[in-house]
Specification:
about 325 residues; mainly alpha; about 75% helix
Amino acid sequence: MPNEREKKKRLPLADMLKTWEFTIFMLLIAVFVINLILSPDLFRVANLFDATLTFTEKSILTLPMALLIISGVIDISVASISAMSGVILGVCYKAGMAIGYATVIGLAVGLSAGLLNGVIITRLKIPSIVVTLAMMLFYRGVGYILLGDTAVRDLPQRFGLLGGAYSSTFIPIQFMIFILLAVIFGFLLHRTRFGRLIYIVGNNENTARYSGVRVDRIRLILCGVTGLIAGLSGILLTSRIGSARPDIAQGNEMAVITICLLGGVYIFGGKGSIIGVVIAALMIGYVHYGLSILNVQEQVIRIFTGGLLIIALLIPTIASRFRASVKHRRGGS
């Protein structure tokens, strides 16, 4: 019989195998295997990283969105902020501004849009989904007012390197930015006092307020950071496609929310981890890559994404009911 010390050593591994993050990781492995069967070229590591260019902009957005949902609010205007930031960058460059300054203004626009969302949510006490639904239409409309159905092309070649170039290795710069941000957001959420407060706010807002936690300030900061990263995502996408257009990133908000929920973030706040979101982002990205190999239409891929969102919403409910049923049976036996 194993002694108590051996049991304690085994518990962390056993607990890890039961986590949602481990389940998602196994699904990611399954997706890799299926993709390798569909496209043997993926055995080349360079091609594996090439595929990340198709989903890195969305993956970057999942990081602040995860923190925002854990805190108990949500932002469905992020894709529109991305488009608006890219459009304003293009408009500034077209007006004669240096591309570096135009990029900074694009980021500032994203930050300002996120802060505006946060001010309305925290000061006027309007539900975040209502506020950001309205702002989603507003920000996208700003882009169309500035450019209409046209696009700003002929952006500098050096700007195009930001979204499509590679580092000294075979890893795209975009993907390196994603990994760096994942480390930063992971550290912020799991290793700092601010991260602990995010969980507290999401678990019980009223209790947090009575305990002296500045709930509105935390959510305002998170809204601002989300807007900033949305601006960065839009700039990276603009760089990759080589033009500033108001119709970019359409539907990205639903993909981002789907990734967060599949990664284990609880839609009502208080639960979630960055590692789960990162794994889910890679899984969804490579699922889309596999579907594109099969020449599946984008509309079908969106239907598939919507189905995953429904599943992600149902899983916590089904799991909680299952646990309650098991507990009830044990109590009655």
